[in-house]
Amino acid sequence: MFKQSSKRPRTLNDLTVLSALDDDPEILRAEMSCGHAVTPQSLTAWCRSLLDQGQYKFMCPALKDGTTQKCNAEWQYVEVRRLAVLTQEEQRHFEEAMAVLAAAVYCEHKTCPGCQTFVERAELTNLCVMCTICTAEKGKTFHFCWQCRREWKGPGPRSDRCDNIGCINTDVDKLSKCCDITLPAVNNLSCPSMRACPTCGNLVEHDTTGCKNIICNRCNVEFCFVCLKITKVCLQTSSHFIPCSGGLAPRQTSIPSWNRR
């Protein structure tokens, strides 16, 4: 519901997208379910920025009254769609982006090279995957390689590669070839510029600013970019701005499997 009041409502205050539009008391604002108010334009911009960061849940960034703590109440999409007054194009973009991001969180899927339908892998350590649709259509069992996405060659199951030429794990290849970076705030410590999240295997990079810890944009788990331990474990014997007691973790040679079940 949109309203205009002489009493300034509690507006959202994330300065990156929600500043100028919410400063004018004459502009109509939508009151969200959490009690904070925002203009439709700012609401659209904030939610779009979350999608661009890989977040499919819309959380209120406003500060709780009299505190420095964020509200973080979740806004349901139906509420955002109604109060942000999305155009058909914006609505389609939001829903497609949300579907892709949510699918990446809740299941691991790839397209079958035979029929192009999405297939979910049941065994996370087995690269040899059967497509039920191709098997039914061809009248014989059809397996493809989860890694190179070609029809499977060689014995299986296997967790490293199939016998197709050039079957490599591109993520592991990126980890082995990435350059080193220096973390100025952590005693100029040098480490690889790219890491695989120890929880879900998502590849992330450090922008070299701030402390050594980073939050994965897929599983939202915070971990140490230096020792690759979950932050709360690392901080038991270290701090945000000093080298880890266990030393620098070497370049990763495998991708952690994310067991979400």
From TrEMBL:
GO terms for molecular function: transferase activity; zinc ion binding. The keyword Cell inner membrane does not apply. It comes from the Eukaryota. Gene3D superfamilies: 1.20.120.1750. Residues 13-248 form the RING-type domain. Keywords: Metal-binding, Repeat, Transferase, Ubl conjugation pathway, Zinc, Zinc-finger. This is RING-type domain-containing protein. The lineage of its organism: Eukaryota, Metazoa, Chordata, Craniata, Vertebrata.
